[in-house]
Amino acid sequence: MTTSLPTEIESNRQPDHEINPQFLTRWSPRSFTDQEVTEDVLLSLFEAARWAPSGSNLQPWRFIIARTEEEKAKFYDFIMPANREWCEKAPVLTLVISYTKTSRGDSNPSHQFDAGTAWGYLALEANNQGLVTHAMGGFHRDQAREALQIPEDYDIHAVIAIGHRGPVDALSEKFQEREAPSTRRPINELLFAGEFGKSL
């Protein structure tokens, strides 16, 4: 690649084909500082998510944002202890949910796909703004639904921690070992030619 990358990225992530560096520099640290994320910057992340592709333009994704100590305490009650250990430093938590119905009341088969795309847009814009994000699946969905009064026709997907990156040594030892950008499968494992299992 023509653009120089931070050493930790260069050491762990080498693309098979040239791409914009934002796709390599976005990763999911666990160490956060408690520095506030200003409202204009925070809203820019959700503005990016707003423009994600959407089947039939239904835009099923929704985000419940927790910024105050009272709001975050509700989230802590349903987040599993291993995630709480590091995410409590993050100044913002958000829950990604999606509406499961179409405007006619039928089942929307692409609501999860679309919500995942919106989260991806949010994560990339956070990276563009100098922030880090980390999505978590380790939480109790039934408790989240009850605590946040989420209607039954919304699916619950992930809790996302948002904030400024903190130092590695602020984490417990077990997390310090994992605080590095992850690698990816080679592209030839992801692509098939014309039918499943046929190499490109």
Automatic annotation (TrEMBL):
<feature type="domain" description="Nitroreductase">
    <location>
        <begin position="25"/>
        <end position="82"/>
    </location>
</feature>
<feature type="domain" description="Nitroreductase">
    <location>
        <begin position="83"/>
        <end position="164"/>
    </location>
</feature>
<dbReference type="Pfam" id="PF00881">
    <property type="entry name" value="Nitroreductase"/>
</dbReference>
<dbReference type="InterPro" id="IPR029479">
    <property type="entry name" value="Nitroreductase"/>
</dbReference>
<feature type="compositionally biased region" description="Basic and acidic residues">
    <location>
        <begin position="10"/>
        <end position="19"/>
    </location>
</feature>
<protein>
    <submittedName>
        <fullName>Nitroreductase</fullName>
    </submittedName>
</protein>
<feature type="region of interest" description="Disordered">
    <location>
        <begin position="1"/>
        <end position="20"/>
    </location>
</feature>
<comment type="similarity">
    <text>Belongs to the nitroreductase family.</text>
</comment>
<keyword id="KW-0560">Oxidoreductase</keyword>
<dbReference type="InterPro" id="IPR000415">
    <property type="entry name" value="Nitroreductase-like"/>
</dbReference>
